[in-house]
Amino acid sequence: MTMTADSQRGVALLTILLLVVSITVVAGAMLASQKIVIRRSGLLFNQDQLLQDLEAGKQLAITIIRADDKLNDNDSMQDIWAQPLPPYTLGSHSITIALRDEASRFNINNLYHDDAADTDALEIFQRLLTQLNLEPEIAIAVLDWQDPDNEIYNDGGDESVLYGEQTNIRANKALPNQSLVSIDQLQEVHGVNADTLAILRPYITAVPYFVPININTASPVLLAALMEETTPQQMQTLTDLRAQQVLVSVDDLWQLPPFISMGTEERQGFESLLAVDSQAFRALITATGNSDVGIAPQRYATVLISKTNSENDDDDINNNGASNNDASNTSGNNREAKTVTVVAQRLWAFRPSF
């Protein structure tokens, strides 16, 4: 059976149509793939830019603390680091920085330092727990988490037995016997759960070296923990006074009620626990990307920054296993030079509690 000329033309036309359809499909797939590659490259570029923004924010936070240190010998809520900072624009991106004085909180790593338990710091933490209607025995458990022995402090019991009685991720395992790197680790400590940590979070920090409490920035709750039978309401008067006049030395505190009634021996126990400046700050850095299309992408970083005396910096920080960046700050006057150092930093895909 022979094909007519019309049939042959029809087959040829159908073949051409199939080829056109095939080419169109292939070209569409290539175009879609190219768009995906371009989109992916754009996202990667934007993410890389956000990471660079976070690095710029970290350097800006260090610069602010350095500049503030040149102005005075104390740290208070009147200082430039404590003031709201406007967003810093970089092209189509922006950076926002918030700084917090970690010395305004109780450093849980103060409980054990220089190879010994600090009984005065322990008593402060116990009173803080009591102020918050929490069990003061939690302070002992946090100390046991840090000290190098395997016995319960002032009890002699076996720590592993205590932890073997509870079902958590460290049951039947030895305690780490080292300082805490984050207050979130407290949920692994005996007697602490998520609700307990939520109550404690605004009043504590975890700095990997000894940090005295800054009486110019500490909350009334923490100040009330310095003395027996003292309430945050009584300390509100003190916080109102320091808002008008910054305390320039710890001796100024002893002239104010209720501390004026504290005995000389009791005051001496506080000499190393209190200060009028801060040796640690935490920065929350937010980098926001281009918002021309859709929701603007954001990345976050928290940075722990130390500000310590130059001669003490290596001993206080490096001996605790913290990283040490070269960020020296030397004043041009007769004031004691301080060293501003990045101790630790962490990237976040979501906004962390701060």
Word description of this protein:
- With 354 residues, the chain is α+β, with helices and mostly antiparallel strands.
- The chain is built from nine helices and twelve strands.
- The strands form four sheets. The protein has a six-stranded antiparallel β-sheet.
- Strand 11 and strand 12 form a beta hairpin.
- The longest helix has 65 residues.
- The protein is elongated, with a radius of gyration of 30 Å.
- The termini are far apart.
- About 5% of the residues have low confidence.
Helix and strand arrangement:
Blueprint: H1 5-69, E1 88-90, E2 93-101, E3 106-107, E4 112-113, E5 116-117, H2 119-131, H3 137-146, H4 159-164, H5 194-200, E6 204-205, E7 213-214, H6 220-224, H7 232-244, H8 264-268, E8 274-275, E9 280-288, E10 298-309, H9 310-318, E11 328-329, E12 338-348
Parallel strand pairs: 3-6, 7-8
Antiparallel strand pairs: 1-2, 2-9, 4-5, 9-10, 10-12, 11-12
Short key terms for the protein model shown above:
9 helices; 38% helix; two-stranded parallel sheet; single chain; alpha+beta; 354 residues
Q: Concise description?
A:
The chain is α+β, with helices and mostly antiparallel strands and 354 residues long. The chain is built from 9 helices and 12 strands.
Distance between the termini: 86 Å
Overall form: elongated
As residue ranges, the low-confidence spans are 167-172, 320-332
Number of helices: 9
